[in-house]
Specification:
mainly alpha, 274 residues, 0% strand, globular
């Protein structure tokens, strides 16, 4: 755990930068809206800023006259998180003492489980850092503290395609919980694939899953569950909370189990090409 954070900890600075850029973007959009509407204040909360960053994009329907727009903020955030955890497990096995620890410890399973725990802990730490950065920005900008998404601000500045005048309270759960869970699931999937193929190819596979999720609204593309814009709290026919939880937990369990089975026969002398 300590070695993983030593090698990948500096990449968390990039998360802070991405979050601050997103917060500044929303703040400037809000001020521009207020200026265009006679200075009427449009107050927001720190949850609005999280929703702006992690919300994703409304469903794309090619059957209607709708232009497909990639959610750049959402995509960059998730891709950067995956990049941050991409190389450490393979490099630990190839260049460090990972293989010796596996041999001396007498348990390949424990080595894999340790990497899984590190991966999930790193993702959780990145999200905690995201929340703290947003809260600090909102405090400095004089925004209200609160766990509720502001309907007035969302309908004025966000293109959610929602018909709800007021959002359900569980929208905050969609925003804070599901993106983190899906990031953990994709992080473990990426780590498993990086031992089966080259890490860069594993990263491309994960990137395809995320990009395809922005275009196709289907439960088979797990990236959809990381977009609160497409949740039942925003859309009447959106995905339910339990569906996102089930998908994320299923991927976590499958990746952990598949990794333990894979490492039973893994040739420690055949290091992954990184």
């Amino acid at each position: 755990m300590r070695q993983g954070f030593i090698q990948c900890g500096r990449k968390l600075i990039g998360i802070i930068c991405l979050v601050l850029i997103s917060c500044l973007d929303l703040y400037l959009q809000k001020k521009g809206y207020e200026k265009r509407n006679g200075g009427i204040p449009l107050q927001g909360t720190w949850m609005d800023y999280l929703f702006f960053l992690l919300g994703g994009r409304r469903r794309f329907d090619p059957s209607v006259d709708q232009v497909f727009v990639i959610p750049v903020r959402w995509l960059l955030y998730h891709l950067y998180l995956l990049y941050a955890v991409l190389y450490y497990p393979c490099r630990d096995l190839q260049y460090s003492v990972g293989d010796l620890m596996m041999i001396k410890g007498g348990s390949r399973r424990n080595w894999w489980l340790a990497k899984c725990i590190w991966n999930m802990t790193y993702m959780a730490a990145a999200y905690v850092l995201t929340f703290v950065t947003v809260i600090c920005f909102c405090a400095a900008a004089g925004e209200r503290a609160g766990l509720a998404v502001t309907p007035e601000l969302v309908h004025a500045l966000f293109d959610t395609g929602s018909s709800y005048a007021v959002f359900a309270p569980e929208l905050s759960v969609y925003v804070c919980l599901l993106p983190c869970l899906i990031s953990m699931a994709l992080g473990l999937l990426l780590m498993l694939l990086s031992f089966l193929v080259k890490p860069v190819i594993a990263f491309l596979i994960a990137a395809v899953i995320l990009i395809a999720s922005t275009y196709l609204s289907t439960g088979f593309l797990v990236g959809n569950y990381a977009m609160p814009y497409r949740s039942a709290a925003v859309l009447s026919d959106g995905f339910l909370l339990w569906q996102g939880l089930a998908a994320g937990i299923l991927i976590l369990v499958v990746c952990v189990a598949a990794g333990m089975r894979f490492f039973k026969t893994y040739d420690l002398l055949r290091h992954p090409d990184v």
